[in-house]
Specification:
The chain is built from one helix and ten strands. The radius of gyration is 13 Å and the shape is globular.
């Protein structure tokens, strides 16, 4: 499975961005998909994920209420809508996928995409 993320960029505090991640190769719509991020000098952390049905979502406390995951299985694509962005959201964002559902993805996803940089200016 190959994951290609896009949509990063520079945005002001309070602004919005929408990241996309498209899966290719040995894809399966029953994989959970989600996002991690790594800020400069910090460890990579889980951000949000969505089940293969799209019914279940989970977000970390730091982004809950501001970020949301959605997916379009016809396009093998997952999205991360980021609203009310803050400077502390500045990071490289990575998409990930796992057949074991959200619980598997949160702790050790099987597949990773390359990162896309999000910079939030104050």
């Amino acid at each position: 499975v190959q994951l290609q993320a896009s949509g990063g960029g520079l945005v002001q505090t309070g602004g919005s961005l929408k990241l996309s991640c498209t899966a290719s190769g040995r894809t399966s719509n029953w994989y959970a998909m989600g996002w991690f991020r790594q800020a400069p000098g910090k460890e990579r952390e889980f951000v949000a994920a969505i089940s293969w049905t799209g019914i279940s979502t989970y977000a970390s406390d730091s982004v809950k209420g501001r970020f949301s995951c959605s997916r379009d299985n016809a396009k093998n694509t997952v999205y991360l809508q980021m609203n009310n962005l803050k400077p502390e959201d500045t990071a490289i964002y990575y998409c990930a996928s796992d057949p074991a559902g959200i619980s598997g993805l949160r702790y050790s996803p099987d597949y990773w995409g390359q990162g896309t940089l999000v910079t939030v200016s104050s």
